[in-house]
Amino acid sequence: MKFNLEYLEGAVNKHLQCNYALIALCQIVLRNVHFAEAPGGVEHHHNYPKGLVEHVGEVMNNAVKLAGGNPSPVLIVSVIWHDFMKIRDYSINYNVVGHFCFPKPNVPEFTLIKEPYRKLINHVSGSFGEFYYEAKTMGLPQEFIDDVSHCLLSHHGRKEWGSPVEHLTADAFILHTADNMSAHGIIL
Q1: What domains sit in the chain, N to C, each tagged with a CATH number?
Q2: Could you list the mean pLDDT of each consecutive 10-residue stretch along the chain, which spans 188 residues?
Q3: Which terminus of the chain has a smaller tally of CB atoms within 10 A, N or C?
């Protein structure tokens, strides 16, 4: 299976069905041009252009299966938003000579760059902040916002791994597990 934007849009539409507000909330991420091109990391997993979309697709696949094929709206929205601000953590510098014009041996096509945002804010808190702003602007219920916010803030699983809080709900545990599986190359 190819985990791309089409797969993610299909999963969102299938599992959120006619909840147009939540579909629109997910579209903020899915239609972001930077999200479509971003790497999922620099040193570890999905460290190549479009790696972020592939990673989020794998997390979606794993999360849906871990939820027994019936994921909650909280889980679906959390999967889409959990790594969104990696678009600010990392950037891609394409080597024009090595990539577009005259490919040469031993010249990399691109270089991945760790941006200052990664240390100053980081995607865990940044994704939460962006989600919270958009969800409040849309007037979504506070309980839903809090449930997704908890998933986003706890998705690394432990404080020493970069989560401000540890997971306390089933959806947060599933997101953390599905994310960790994808980061280690495990796809259900």
Answers
A1: 5-87+121-183 (1.10.3210)
A2: 94 96 98 94 86 96 98 98 93 67 62 85 92 98 98 86 85 97 93
A3: N
